[in-house]
Amino acid sequence: MTAPTITQKTLQKTVAGKTITLTPEQTEAFGRELDALKERVIADLGERDVTYIRRIIKAQRGLEVAGRALLFGGVFPPFWLAGTAMLGLSKILDNMEIGHNVMHGQYDWTGDPALSSKKFEWDTACPAEQWRHSHNYMHHTYTNIVGMDRDVGYGILRMSKDQRWTPYFLGNPVYAFLLMVLFQYGVALHELESERIRAGEITLADKREILDGIWRKTKKQTLKDYVGFPLLAGPFAPWVFAGNLTANLIRNVWSYMIIFCGHFPEDVQEFSIEETKAETRGQWYFRQILGSANLTGNKLFHILSGNLSFQIEHHLFPDIPAHRHAEIAVEVKEICKRYGIPYNTGPLPRQFATVIRKIVRLALP
C-alpha cells in the first residue's frame, strides 16, 4: 500500500511550540475563503487605484528632481542634507512602492504602458527582466521552501536550520552586513545562483547571459549616479557624488530591513520540498502565511515600505495593488484566527532584532 499524498493528509505545522492542525476539509474551506476575498477585491479595482499609483509616481519624480537640484548646491550643508534625504526617499519609492508593485502586474489591468509589468525598468542595479523571474516566479511560487526559494539566504546567508551548515557560514553576520549596505547589488546577483556555483554544480560560463545583463544595468546605474550627475555639477561634483552614494545607501539599508523583516523574523516558518508536494490552493495559502511576517506602523511607513509591511497579504495576493493590503489585512487576520493559524506581526525594531539574532545563531552549527 502506497503512502498517502500530502493532499490526503491532515495539515500540520509546529510554530513556537504549538502545533497547528487543519483537516483536509478545513484546508479546503480556508482556501475558498481567501479565494473569495481576492475575487472581491479584484472586482472592486478602479479609478482610485490608478489615482493612487499616479500620485506616488508624481511624488517620486518631484523628490528626485528637487533632491538632485539641491545637491548641486551641496557645498552648503543644509542643501546637501535635504538633497540627499529627498533623493534617498525618491529611490525608496521607486523601488518599493512603484517598481516592485508595478512589476508584479498589480496595474496591468489598466492597459497603461507606463504601468506595464513587462515594460517597467527601475532605478537599481538589478535588471527588471531577471528580477521578474527570480522574484515573481521563483520566490512567490516556492516561498520559504528550502532548496527551491533562493530568497532563503539569497545564496549567501544561512537563514534556516534546514540549510546544511559548513564553515563558510561562520561569516554569516559579516555577509549579512555587506548584503545590507550593498543590497541593490545583492539583488542584482540573485539570478546568478551563486550557491550552485560554490557547490560546483554550474560555472560562471553557464551564466554568461545573466552576467551580461547585470553588467549592462550596473554600468548604466554607475554612470548615471557617479559620473553623469557629478560631471553636470562641475566644481560641486564631490558633493553630488557623495549625495548619490549616500542616497543609494539609505535605499539599500531600508529595503534590506523591510524585506528581511517580512521573511526571517522569529517564528516565520520554512518548509521542505517533501511536505509541499502536490499542494492544494489552501495549503499554498497556509505556507504563504506561516512563511511571512507583517510590520506595524503609520500610513507613511507603509507607503515607504512599498506596503511590504503587509508581507503576509503580499504573499497571499502578489498581483493585487499593494495599497489595498491594509484593508485586506483586517479580514485575513480574522480568517487566520478562526482557523487557529498564527498571524505574525510587530514593530520594525522588534522584528529586526529577531532577524539579527537568527543571523548570528545560524552562523554556528
From TrEMBL:
Record field: transmembrane: 69-89, 168-187
Fatty acid desaturase domain location: 79-345
A Gene Ontology BP annotation from the UniProt entry: lipid metabolic process
Keyword terms of this UniProt record: Membrane, Transmembrane, Transmembrane helix
GO molecular function: oxidoreductase activity, acting on paired donors, with oxidation of a pair of donors resulting in the reduction of molecular oxygen to two molecules of water
GO cellular component terms listed in the entry, alphabetical order: membrane
Protein name as catalogued: Acyl-CoA desaturase
Organism listed in the record: Mycolicibacterium agri (Mycobacterium agri)
